[in-house]
Amino acid sequence: MRFARFVHAAGVSFGVVEGDGASGLTVAEISSLPFEKVVFTGQRWALPDVRLLAPIFSSKVIGVGRNYAEHAAEMGNEVPKEPLIFIKPSTSVIGPNDAIRIPSVTQQVEEEAELAVVIGATGARRVDRAGAEKAIFGYTCANDVTARDLQRKDPQWTRAKGFDSFCPLGPWIETELDVSDLEVRCEVGRDPNNMEVRQIGRTKDMVFDIPGLVSYVSHVMTLLPGDVILTGTPAGVSKIEPGDTVSVTVQGIGELRNTVVALD
User: Fold this and answer.
1) CATH of the domain at 28
2) pTM, whole model, 2 decimals?
3) What are phi and psi of 92, to 5 degrees?
């Protein structure tokens, strides 16, 4: 199922996205959280008539660095011997079509297209690989926006990764997906109808696979329902600037689009 969080005339709801293809999709409102037994309210809207939000509330977003060998190489780094993790604050999360806001303190902001893992109702604490697989609720698209000049300058990555709006998520959570070999793509352009491909990778090329990542993180910190793990980005990261549109697509999930603006 595809679970979305959205704004409609009467407020904000979770819902199930129904239909096939890019057109003719509808969203059916549910009265429950996505993790719970799904209870439909009977309300339904055409997808273009609502505004999608980031699909889940997260207490924390955990990033994984250098999880594709080619990306590690383009940054001039070795592949890590164990997962390299960092935290993006929940305040960095935005949804589809929201603006990535670039502060004046940085001169080199780059996109990072990623597959994101959403943790389910049981959470995860010190789980093995089998427990990690059971803890996963679903998957969504993510953009680990990074101030690359600040990342190189600072001894740790909190500032470079943590600005408000630096973690677009969406468009929804897909719960039924084999993620062993999916295309991850990023396109950037001034004309949303004529975008330049910046990144193309496949999840099979991850250094550390998803069950391994979830297990590893769960031995560092307790993962709560709704927490998100960003699984790393393929090679091809490049500068984004005000006026750009950034599109992240993960095969089997959909497209996450965000504009880029200057904050000040």
Assistant:
1) 2.30.30.370
2) 0.97
3) -85, -10
